[in-house]
Amino acid sequence: MRQPPLLVVDKITKVYTHGRLNRRVTFKLEADFTIAKSAIVGMMGPNGSGKTTLFELITGSNRPTSGNVRCLGRNIHKVKYRERDRLAIHYHQSYQVRRFKKTQPSFMMEAADSNYPMIHLFDEPQFNTQDGYIGFMLDFFHKLRREARLVLVCLHPNEPLHLDIMREICEQYIFVSRGRLQHHPDFESMLSDDRVRNYLGHLI
Length: 204
Known about the structure:
- The protein is an alpha/beta fold.
- The chain is built from five helices and ten strands, in the order βββαββββαβαββαα.
- The chain is globular.
């Protein structure tokens, strides 16, 4: 039996509004893409552009306004709450965990049918050049890749080293700006985008 794509983000929107009577949209994220096979994907973009929100939607800790996310063929928002990290797991920079309202009892939801996450999302991991941690993390990314997992690495580059890391390990790239995603097949293509160059500034 043919394995379904590892990740399908199907016409997702997430809309945040403000106000009770005259509601106005304060932020809107839109995403629609598929990553069929194991890969290491780099992601970057300005603060507040929607990167972490996208990760939360993929792991099921945040609910979309419309659309759905399928991890290995399963709608992540229909999987039992405690089993969602068996499909997709979000490694936060901080240890703060956001809690969202449960919409239905877990016993009415689907099993993950997976014992180990297939999708690993790293949200601005800290790379310390002094203690060999970079080598450890890069080895871990490659290990997951060899095990047919999908790895998304989100960085907010503040020194050339971060760009060197992304160029070395990533096979494709996603740039997020103002809630919109731009996909690039390689590092050079990404750097040819004026929005990316303006964002990186002196680093390139």
